[in-house]
Amino acid sequence: MSTYRKMRRQARLARRSGLQPMMVINAGEPFPETLGVLLARWAWRYRSELAPAGVAAALVAAAWWLHHTRPHWWPVLAVPTGVATWAVALFGARWRFPTLAERVYAAVTIYVGGIWLSAATAVGPFVPLLRESLVIGGLILSVPWWAHRRRRAKVALECKLQAWPDIAKVIGLAGAEVMSATVDVWGWRARFRLARGQTIKEVTAKIPAIESGLGTFRGAVRVYPTPDDLANRCEIRVLNMDPHAGSIPWPGPSVTSITQPVALGLFEDAALCQMVFARLHGIFGGTTGSGKSGGLNVLMGNLVACRDVVIWGIDLKRGMELGPWESCIDRLATTPRGHRQSPRVRITSFRGRFVKTPRRVRTQPSLRDRYSRPRAMLTHPASRMRLIAMFLAVARNCGDAPVRTWERSSSNVRSRT
After folding, report:
1. Verdict on whether the full-model pTM lies above 0.70
2. What is the CA radius of gyration of the chain?
3. Could you tell me which residues come within 8 angstroms of residue 103 by beta carbon, excluding any fewer than 6 positions away?
4. 379-414 tens-digit pLDDT
5. Complete domains list, the chain, with CATH
């Protein structure tokens, strides 16, 4: 501890040296950050873009250490490289590499990196040929990484989630924390932990405010409960683009048997909407323009590819819906008379004994006329309803799957009827 005399002596020495005492008054701000801190923050912010440089630096460090300590290991390194390349190429879909291009890129990157490490272990990483090949190969393999859509979307998502505390405070959800976030084909989803007293109903009521805070378009935010069904958690899904805004190209038939699930379309999370029609009844319902005809055409395109299906159709629009599929349909009724006759023929066919062949379903004609109905019964509405009910009951027992479209009438139409 300095005494009074030492302090006076130091002050005299300072005055003789030309130093003058001064006092600095500021607002309490910290000192400027050092260059190392700024570089570390910059590297952390752009860590995704700098990942190829980090991998190359790790390869150089590992090769330098192996070359100076265990240079005879270079043949051993080729074995795990080949195994890892083979595993990623074949089973990469289970390890977050869903597309073929991603699996090929990962396999090529692992193979090139492993071969370079093996060669650098034997002769050293700073040999001119290996040094130049690392730089050129690293730049070539970095281009697909920098241009990858999912990586760029993940980086943009991280930037948005960094601003979530401020957004939550403004929209009235202060205290809500982000637990996890993932990026999918159409957008992203995140799981949130709500503050005490907040529920999913409050989050649902603030969907317009969340859309405004995140800068998305109207109708892009969905709020769902979490699978664990906890009251203080929720899942928010944000769509960057609406997958149902336009038509989706049909990739072709997805089944070869009626016992397989038929792919009818895509959900909002890009998952397939699949349904098994074996021993089930199906209906396409909705208002005008909701996609009933499109769904029916997708179903017909899959049914005609099934080898164990015989299609019968009734189209009272004079064949406007099923007319293009007439060459693939065994029986098609496009008039009221044919519509009245088709249920009777179908029921009498169901009552027969089936002999299945690879191309058709054949019945014995000795049992066909036993259950025929008079024409007057088919014209009466109540009789027709009973006949249709009987038709559906027998169809269920025989494994048949009737499918029809139904249009829900609007409020204007219901008010006039």
Report:
1. no
2. 36
3. 88, 89, 92, 93, 97
4. 455 665 665 665 555 555 555 555 555 554 444 444
5. 50-147 (no CATH), 151-239 (3.30.980.40), 262-413 (3.40.50.300)
